[in-house]
Amino acid sequence: MSEGQKTRTMVDIYGQQYVIIGTEDSRHIKLIASMVDEKMREISSKNPSLDMSKLAVLTAVNAVNDYMKMKEQLERLEGELKRVKD
Fold it and tell me: If we measure between CA atoms, which residue out of 65, 63, 62, 59 comes closest to residue 16?
């Protein structure tokens, strides 16, 4: 796929169909959708009374939390690598 070319990918997240349009490869989009679906199901199994919007927000909060932890770890490792190189 050429840079900037958009693809349409149909995914299923928590029983809902979505068409995702973007420049990422369809396999990548499907993987991300699968991970979101898995996280939503995990959270729902622990909190079955959550409505869809609260479940979506908690899933987003979990995803951003995971992202921030990985970003901090990457920055820490980059700092260590820089110290070793110097």
Answer: 59
**Which one, of 45, 21, 10, 53, lies nearest residue 61 by Cα?**
53
Strand spans (E) along 1-86? 7-13, 16-22
Closest CA to 2 of 23, 33, 27: 23
Chain segment 46-78, per-residue pLDDT in tens: 999 999 999 999 999 999 999 999 999 999 999
The structure tokens 């899933």 sit at 59
Q: Which two tokens stand for residue 33?
A: 């959708």
What type of residue sits at position 32?
Answer: I
Place of tokens 């820089």: 82
Instruction: Give dist(CA 56, CA 52) in Å, integer.
Output: 6
